[in-house]
Specification:
- The complex is a heterodimer of chains A (374) and B (162).
- Chain A is α+β, with helices and mostly antiparallel strands.
- Chain A has a single domain, classed as Orthogonal Bundle (Cytochrome-c3 Hydrogenase, chain B), CATH 1.10.645.
- Helices cover 48% and strands 13% of the residues of chain A.
- In chain A, the strands form three sheets. A three-stranded antiparallel beta sheet of chain A has the order 1-2-3. Chain A has a three-stranded antiparallel beta sheet with strand order 6-7-8.
- In chain A, helix 3 packs antiparallel against helix 4, helix 4 packs antiparallel against helix 5 and helix 4 packs antiparallel against helix 13.
- The longest helix of chain A has 30 residues.
- The termini of chain A are far apart.
- Chain B is α/β, with parallel strands linked by helices.
- Chain B has a domain of 98 residues: Beta Polymerase, domain 2.
- The longest helix of chain B has 13 residues.
- Chain B is globular and about 55 Å long.
- Classes of the chains: A alpha+beta (374), B alpha/beta (162).
- The interface between A and B is large, with 43 and 38 residues.
Chain lengths: 374, 162
Amino acid sequence: MKLHQQVGYDPDSVDLMINMGPQHPSTHGVFRLVIWVDGEKIVKSEPHVGYLHRGSEKICESERYNQIVTLFDRLDYVGNLNNELAFCLAVEKLMDVTVPERSEYIRVILCELNRIASHMLFYGVYGLDAGAMTPMLYGFRERERVQDLFQRVTGARMMHNYIRIGGVKEDLPSDFNNRMVTLLEDLKRGVEECDQLLSGNEMFLARTKNIGILDAGDAIDYGVSGPALRASGILEDVRVTDPYSIYDRFDFGIPVGTNGDCWDRYYVRIEEMRESIKIIENAMKDMPNGETLAKVRRIARPPKGEVFVRTESPRGDLGVFVVSDGSDMPYRVKVRAPSFANLQALQLMLEGAYLADAVLILGSIDIIMGEVDR
Amino acid sequence: MTQQLSEFSIALRETLGKKLSLFPSSILGQELDMIMVRTNPFDIVNLCDFLKNDTELMFTYFASLTVVDYEQVDKTLEVVYHLISLTKRYKLTIKSSISSDNPTINSVTNIWRAADWFEREAHDLFGVFFEGHPNLKPLLLYEGFEGYPGRKSFPFHEYKEW
């Protein structure tokens, strides 16, 4: 009797099509992944996106510039302040507005806190993908601390609408310094706790080491950016190579991986959280007093022109392209979302991987469907 | 943020000024603080191939592809490419105008695989046909959607889904 028997009617084909449908607990949003498997190995995969397409870019053409900030909040709905910052930088460059010093520091502090919150969400959800239930609660506890501060400063836990064209909406509350001191202590302890809980765990290492390896040349060719690119060994961070706002005044390290596997992509984010805490501490020391919003007309009318601005969001290289025709509504707004480009590399990483690793590889790229589909 | 050219953009403008003589139909320009090259659609693949492989330029990173609808201005669609050179820290914009009646342009997916989904999205939302693209199926819109919602002529405010 033969041990391995041919299944199916066609003796040449044994591929089974499996649909990880749009409703799935591990696909990080509404995302459909069609996978063809041969036994347990993935032969081909085909991502289907567009379930969350809301036409944000088209809506921008019929809204005024200060109304568009709320749309950008909801693109990458985890790193809201980074999106708002990217749009406001683009319009400020068009209008040649100088932002006051104090609001530059406030923006940097809040964006770095948002980076920590986003990476904490990644940490919790990635542990859950691997099967560990506890990191989820540890990650979300730290994230809630950050969102508590955001509620005190901006008024909302998530969709802040705080960074405006010309600065920030209003000044920081009076108890900000005290709250930041306790928050930074809590975050330092939290990052260490989260690191010790999951990073060295034997089962986690067995599930993520040497899985989903993305070669450096392939990564650049696919337009991958952010922690996924740095994990493959390329030293590229928009805050350093193309500095915007006041990031050139801060001295922080850029964590770079060696293998380009899932564990590297995970650990680069843990290290980035530590670097973000350093930036926040330095910014708190140097923050000057002053006003927080430049004198900009409420209905902004940038002069005719185009601008393309790159920023470093927690997911990668977020670019905003604004075309203005001189009126109070933009002619065209295009968002270059980092998750959109990173997701293309998924097809490459899944070839030859086992079906059980598909979830972890997808989770390690850290996509947010809101910005993939816009 | 400043509208001045950075030192890298100044160096790029000098280098491109010499090298673009190989492409007589390309015009070097400047848009605020980004260097811009305007070219005709037939030259796109050759120009992009040159920009990626030339040792002094090395534009290996494809940042984004956008389509801007100027149909109601001069019956054209403008395809805008943004390229980044990671090693030299250069940023470049390439623009090309195609007619809006029959918008066709060559695909650059053989040069940068990142252009794949950007071109699919442009085809989906604006109707631009990319010759040589391996798989130009709709990306963001559902099957059976009629019309090109990215264009200005799409009835945005009057559109009723049911």
